[in-house]
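Worked Example 4.2. Consider the chain below.
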Amino acid sequence: MLLLERLINSTSVTVESNLLVIHCGSHLMINSQLMAPLKKALDRGAFFMPIQSIFLGLSVFLLLQTGCEAKPEYQTVKWVYDGDTLLLKNGHKIRLIGINTPEVAHHGKKGQPYGREATEALRELLKGADNKIRLERGKQAKDRYKRDLAYVFLPDGTDISEWMLQQGWATLMVFPPNTRYIQNYRQIERAAQRKKRTIWRQKSHQIKKPHQLKRAYRGYVRLKSSIKSIKITKNNIILELDKKIFIKLRKYNLNYFTRYDPKKLLHKAVIISGLLQKYRGKRIINLRHPVQLVRVN
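Applying the procedure from the previous section yields the following structure tokens:
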């Protein structure tokens, strides 16, 4: 995210991708490309200003002049299930966008390493903010478990997903179309990896080659391998790694791959990050976004 922040009372302005975003409780989004003609028009004189630029300019001017009277709407957290799931006082269950934290013991299942610690860290963070949060809803509103998907912020502006990644309590988890802050999250995760913070001290979270994995292993991996074969089906692109581990990319996510074509990675070395799962007898990692895949020279 390109950040251009200007605070006027409770108002801030950011440029995110191709959008000019004015933060004032709710968001007014304006295509930043339309601001170029506005600036040119101001330089030349208002007579040559397009109608759309006049409207946009007045909208921005009025919001900034008033300091944006709309106040952020805060919610109260009633319970923290784990490091990425909250229950609000109003009964809504919130799943934080962009991260995945270790599981805590539940329903007879054994907890994962650092699951309890990650949960307690989040509880302490929220306690310091009197359990008040602000929600920014994702483009996809709910997950398959009917939980509300949201970016979650403290009153001081702290992005909780970002904080959990920074402290090493979480791994990056991408589910398009909720990708707004994903590039920033990836940079923060990489910094935590380099510093070996918390979960990144575990052997399971280090970069491995496929032959180093136990056949029965399921869970988070960072695998380095060359692409042995590529199969294109009606809905998917399947990349085969060593030891018959497969990367599955659904074609509707191809539009996120603007810097390279995954179909042209045959015999190329890569590092893939994600959850290794078993599906129909095969070991599969779902690839949803380029931040999961690093090409190795």
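The chain has three domains: 12-66, 74-199, 206-296. The chain is about 20% helix and 35% strand. Compare this with Example 4.1 before moving on.
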